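Much of the work behind modern protein science is quiet bookkeeping, done one molecule at a time. The fold becomes a row of whole numbers, each drawn from a learned catalogue of backbone shapes. The protein below has been through that process, and both of its lines are reproduced in full.
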Amino acid sequence: MDIKKFLLIGLALLPAWPLAAQAPVQDTIPEIVVTATGTSHLLKDVPVQTEVITRQMLQNYAGRSLEDILGGLTASFAFNEDDMGSHLQLNGLGNSYVLILIDGKRIHGDVGGENDLSLVDPQNIEKIEIVKGSSSALYGSDAIAGVINIITRKHRDEGLLLENSTRYGSYNDLRQHNAIGLKYGKLNSLTNFQLQHSDGWQNTSVEYSPGSQHPVTDSQNKTVNRHTNVQVGEQLTYTLSKQLEFYAGGTIYGKRIYRPNGKYAQFDVHTYDLQYRNASASAGGRWKPNETDVVTFDLDWNRHAYMYYFTANTLVEDYEKSKGTIYYPYYPYLPGQTEMQSDQRRTMASLKGVFTLPGENLLNTGAEYRYDWLYSPTRVQGSTVSDWTAALYAQDEWKYLSGRTLLHLAGGLRLTWNRQFGVRLTPKVSAMLGLGPAWRIRASWSQGFKTPTPKELHYRYVRQMSGTYLYLGNLALRPQTSNYFSLGGEYTHAGWSINVTAYHNRVGDMITLVTIPNYQAPAEYIIQYDPVRTRQYQNIEDARTTGVDLSIRYGFRDWAFGLGYSWLDTNANQYDSDHDRMHQVIIDGTAHHKGNFFTSWNHRFSPNYRLSAGLYGRMSSKRYYQIDGDGKGYQIWRVATTHDLGHSKRTVWRVEAGVDNIFNYVDRTPHGLHLGTTTPGTTFYLGLTIRFNQGRKVSSQFNETINNNFNSKQYEEN
């Protein structure tokens, strides 16, 4: 990474700072957060370090996807997107260690161990709360690296809401969002629709295979394949009284990835596309027995199905009819037919209560039950596996205020009972010391517990690209544990917000894919597939991540400035079966240095026109991997503008326009090796949003910002 170039751009913008000396309007409204403790607090007073991406930041940045938003506005995230998902990494730990919530509910869309974040519509996000470090005591498994809570926009005004947002960019990148909301008396309905499409692109025609001495130079494979996905969601709320409210909702989601038909059977001949079918349903309610206490109850069902959609006549081996032999009969598929690869279903029930106790104590307690079911006729022996987990948790918060000193303590404990791996206790303790209005010191210690997933235990997967790769589950896996420590300081005063946090996370029995000799795999798999490389899920010893996160923000009148930096070091002890010894490895995907930068200018020229213009940069040093090369370091810079036009009493028009990757950086690493970034180079986008709200008058950007924050606060109180 060219640090000098990054610093020069930042220094060039410094002369703009003295132009004004007043905090921007959006920064004067106290931010309310809920994710860190499961209870509502002012951001400055929460005992667990929390990062917030506000609605104003989202509008100014105008990101095309959740990956774009998180990667561009925070320094701790890294992504390596492909057909199988987003490959998110937070502070050295991958997607399976990061819990992603939508309005406090777990996202469901696991594909090969990775979540498809296109399930999240960027236009429907009110704000994003990010809590780093293990939160298993409160949220259970999958929360060892951190929690991302995506809080969606709500319709709470009487009458009709209509919204249309269309964004079009290079490579036929189309993002369409529509919303219809209606509130009539005690009934509230909100329907959302999103469509995403891209033609994809190819950054290189060179293809690498570990089984070939010479790379292919005219491969048809794309860096990002053409794809289309559509989602429809509905949310109904019925307010019986001030004390009792019920809700029901659901979504339907479909995605198709179009793969090229090339001329090399070993490399890029594809006779099928990838197709996904998701569905969800939820119901629950909220009961407030008094002004301070609240009880919520939820029931959620989710389905994620992943299948091959055949585009040509294809003979596929029929594993179900093999009866344990190594000889598989073939079944012919015709164009338009599908073959199921995996069907994952999850049912969750939860009961939660928040109660105010004497002596400035706040108790958060609850119970959860989760049932996971996986059907995969081609990848799981016996086709079907299942698992369940039950849990009880309790967290107590205590505040002490004396003069200008505030002490906020939170301690929690979770009892988890898994069908296969028994009972485990996971504690967490956090503290915040406030010294006057400007200084905050935070410290946390927490443990994590994560059982192997059904895929890690049972899956068998063959990847036919750049040679044949065989991926195997492992029934001998042990549960993972973690110990997380963090210490940070925060200064907030006169438009400045400076935060520094150091952390150390030690993961025991970490599960990762390890390359093994072919002779260690079952003989029938080697005979059948003849893989050039075999990888298996295994526990590795004593993995650790250590790092420091720095965030600086400064706002004054129409200007805002932000700088983020993340330093990370990781290693793990892995057994080398060839030499019968342990050796240290860097955790896959680690980049020692990541950063982001932005400066934006917001100015209202008249009651009918407001301009927001910003320069945004994100950068990363080299990312390390055990096989298939390292990912190159990069810098990506973008210019984004937002134009609010002609506000009437109830209607808002907004135009977005910008340029991504203004220096035209392209990573042309051959297919089959790790990429630093998949960007195609310089791209352009243009978007238009029209929002009509019958129950609200919008007279200025200030009123709109006030209402956005008020809606967010209402959600958290609910």
